[in-house]
Amino acid sequence: MPLPVDFQFSQNNLQDYLDCARRFELRALRRLAWPAAQSEPVIEQERAIERGSRFHHMLHQAVIGIPPTTLAEQCEDPFLQLWWQNYLTHPPQDLPKQRHPEFTLHAPFAGFRLIAKFDLIAIEPGQRAVIVDWKTAPHRPARSTLARRMQTRLYRFLLVEAGASLNQNMPIHPEQVQMIYWFANEPTAPEIFSYNEAEHKQINAELHQLIQEIQSLSNSGQPFPLTTHEKHCAFCTYRSLCGRGIQAGNWQDMEDEPEAETPLQIDLEQIGEIAF
Ligand code: SF4
C-alpha cells in the first residue's frame, strides 16, 4: 500500500518504524485498530493516561497564566498533587520568557511532511530556543535511550527547520537549540540535550534515508517485516495479530507514557500555515 501523498511523519510513527516496521504498517499506514491492551493492569494504564493528560493540561494552563494555587486546588489525585508540587518546587531552570505551550510545527520534507506537537517551546528571539517535554512515565529511560529516540532527533531538527515564525522570522541555528526532558517523578534531574550543525546535517540525512526506505517498502506491496526484537511486542496492541503472545507487559515497566488509541494526526488547516 503506497504512502498517501499527504502522509505526515511524526515522532510516533517514525519511532514505530524503528521499533517494528510491521507496527508502522498496521498503525500509521493501514490505521488498523486492534482490541488489545497496550499494558496491564488495564485499569492502571487508563489511569496513567488520564493522569498524564491532566498533568500536561495543568502545565499548559499555568503557562498561559492561571495561578498555580488555583490549579492545585483542582487536583485530588495524590500522584497529580505530588507531580504538581514537584513542578512548583523544581521547575525547569532558566527558561526564556516567551512561552509557547502545546505548539505544533510542521515542514515539507522528502515529498511528505514532518510534524511535531511540542509540550512547550520557550524562546528568546535571536538568542536561544528551549524545547521542554514533560515526562510522567513510571520508569525513567537511560540518557543513551533518550538520545537515540526519534523524539529527541525530530523535535530539535524541526524547530530549526520550521521555527522561524517563533523567532521574529529569523532562522533558528542548531547551536541555539536545547531540549529538556523534565521528569515528574525526578524533578531535580532533568535530562538536557544541546544541538549543533553537524548533528542537524546527520539527522537530515537519516530522516531522508528512513523515509525513502519506508516509501520503497510501501511501494513494494509486500507486508512490512516483524521486528526481531520481541521485547517491543510486550507493549504493542498487535501482539495476538502477529502471533507474539497475548499477555501485555506491566505498565510500570514502560519507559514512555502509555498512549491513548489515536496516534498523532493533525489537521493542518486547523493550525494554519507557517512560513519556512
Ligand atoms: S506485536 Fe511485535 S511484531 Fe507485531 S506489530 Fe507489534 S511490535 Fe511488531
Architecture overview:
The protein has a single domain (8-29, 44-258), classed as Lambda Exonuclease, Chain A. Strands 1, 3, 4, 5, 6 and 7 form a six-stranded mixed beta sheet that branches. The chain has a two-stranded parallel ribbon with strand order 2-8. It has helices at 11-19, 21-29, 42-63, 68-74, 78-89, 143-148, 150-162, 197-220, 239-242, 268-271; strands at residues 8-9, 39-40, 98-109, 112-124, 128-135, 177-183, 186-193, 249-250. Residues 270-276 have low confidence and may be disordered. The radius of gyration is 19 Å and the shape is globular. By secondary structure, it is α/β, with parallel strands linked by helices. Helix 1 packs antiparallel against helix 2 and helix 1 (11-19) runs antiparallel to helix 7 (150-162). It contains ten helices and eight strands. Bound molecules: iron/sulfur cluster. The site of iron/sulfur cluster has 13 residues, from helix 2 and helix 9.
Main structural class = alpha/beta
Quickly give the CATH architecture: Alpha-Beta Complex
Helix percent reads 25-40%
User: What is the CATH topology classification name?
Assistant: Lambda Exonuclease, Chain A
